[in-house]
Amino acid sequence: MLKNRQITLASHAHGVPQVDNFSMIETPVPTPGAGQFLIRNLYFSLEPAIRGWLEGKANYFEPIPLGGVVRGPSVGRVIESNNPDYAVGDIVFALNQWEDYSICNADTILLEKLQPQDDTPLSWYVGPLGGSGTTAYVGLHEIGHIKAGQTVVVSAAAGATGSMVGQIAKQRGCRVIGIVGSDAKAQMLVDDFGFDGAINYNTCTDITAAVMAQAPDGVDIYFDNVGGPILNAMLLTMKVQGRIVCCGMISDYNRTENPNPITNLWEVVARQLTMQGFLLFTYHDQVPAAQAQLAEWITSGKIKVLEHITKGIANTPAAFCELMSGKTTGKALVQLDLPEEQ
Ligand SMILES: NC(=O)c1ccc[n+]([C@@H]2O[C@H](COP(=O)([O-])OP(=O)(O)OC[C@H]3O[C@@H](n4cnc5c(N)ncnc54)[C@H](OP(=O)(O)O)[C@@H]3O)[C@@H](O)[C@H]2O)c1
Predict the structure, then answer these.
(1) What's 196's domain CATH number?
(2) Ligand 1 within 6 A of 250 CB?
């Protein structure tokens, strides 16, 4: 009989999550009820947001209870269905759990039936054509109101979201500077991803000065993935009526003490900035159009895809800890092993 391997939360994470915060259990594969369908998960999207659900505190979703299966987005194939809208063989994206098999219904959060093209790897639907690429696209357009000729700065720029932000901004005719945590990542942005400049925040003593050296007229859009000291420094680089797209604050996710203080908030008034947070699921209706444009850019070679793929469900905790330690570039994801390999 097939078993459902599930990754559960064994202990709350404090600081950078550790492999022993997680356990793997085996349970029977669930049977879909009325209106439900069963999917075989193929890829897990590893996302820093999951870190916020691991320490027992309310976030924008309920915290995952101790012993509960870890929640996370996945791409899977429908293998059994009691729902006329989802046929066996359909490929779906949804916020599921870290497990081989998940039960879905029409109300499953982020549920989307995918129309994968033959020449498109399914893994891209958790990364550049999935939450990372569409977050970058929606953030730049809906929140940033990006226009050609502007200067865009993005943090965590070599990551899943940041590498897409920079490349999309280049497609829109902008000057792009990335902020990253190593020289190797900075080099990669310029050499491989077409960024105009890059800054390593770990060796740079004055981020404001470093950005102003590369963008003397100031910054139109700062796409903030990290918050903390980098956001604080970026507030001093913004043009009047510039826009700060608040996508995430990863510099605070692993902190055990209070969040990093932001002392330069007066600049929001003085420079008449718009600083707006957003969560992709609020803009879910815009995802198909974003995906279509991203697919065109990727298939025509204008945007490059970089994936950090870990194989095997049992390695999911280690892969997630790697992501949260800044050791990955591009989209971090897990490719599940097939049932016959169990
Ligand atoms: N709003 C939304 O709907 C939405 C959707 C998806 C993602 N997000 C957010 O977008 C951000 C990026 O997510 P992702 O999935 O694309 O992850 P990612 O960028 O692929 O990986 C995270 C990166 O963050 C950087 N980082 C970690 N700690 C940092 C620190 N203290 N200061 C500065 N940078 C740090 C690391 O790169 P370095 O080596 O360069 O430091 C690390 O590689 C996260 O904040 C996430 O929560 C938001």
Answers:
(1) 3.40.50.720
(2) yes
Query: What pLDDT sits at residue 127?
Result: 96
Closest CA to 103 of 44, 30, 34, 188: 30
Same domain for 157 and 64? no
Q: Is the CB of 49 under 6 A from ligand 1?
A: yes
**Ligand 1 midpoint to CA 253 (Å):** 10
Rounded to two decimals, the pTM is 0.96
- For residues 241 and 270, give the distance between their C-alpha atoms in angstroms, rounded to a whole number: 9
User: Separation of 161 CA from ligand 1 center, angstroms?
Assistant: 7
DSSP category for residue 261? P
Burial pattern 324-341, b for ≥16 Cβ within 10 A else e, equals bebebbbbbbbbbeeeee
Which among 161, 183, 232, 249 is the best mutation to test ligand 1's pocket, defined by most ligand atoms within 8 Å of the CB?
Answer: 161
Q: Is 47 in the pocket of ligand 1 (CB under 6 A)?
A: yes
Bridge partners (DSSP) listed for residue 69 = 8
pLDDT at position 341 is 46
Q: What percent of the chain has pLDDT over 70?
A: 99
The whole-number pLDDT of residue 339 equals 56
Pair 276, 136 in one domain:
yes
What is the number of the ligand 1 atom nearest to the C-alpha of 246? 1
CA–CA separation, 24 and 5 (whole Å): 7
Alpha-carbon distance of 113 to 93, in angstroms, equals: 6
**Residue 193 buriedness (CB in 10 A; 0-12 / 13-18 / 19+):** buried
Ligand 1 near 184 CB (within 6 A): no
Beta pairing partners, 91 = 77, 114
Point out the residues of the chain with pLDDT beneath 50.
341-342
Q: What separation in angstroms does the CA of 229 have from each of 202, 226, 259?
A: 11, 9, 10
CATH number at residue 11: 3.90.180.10
166 lines ligand 1 (CB under 6 A): no
Find how far residue 283's CA is from the centre of its chain.
Answer: 15
Q: Is 37 helix (H, G, I), strand (E, B) or coil?
A: strand
* CA pair distance 154, 164, nearest whole angstrom: 10
Distance from C-alpha of 181 to C-alpha of 201, rounded to nearest angstrom: 6
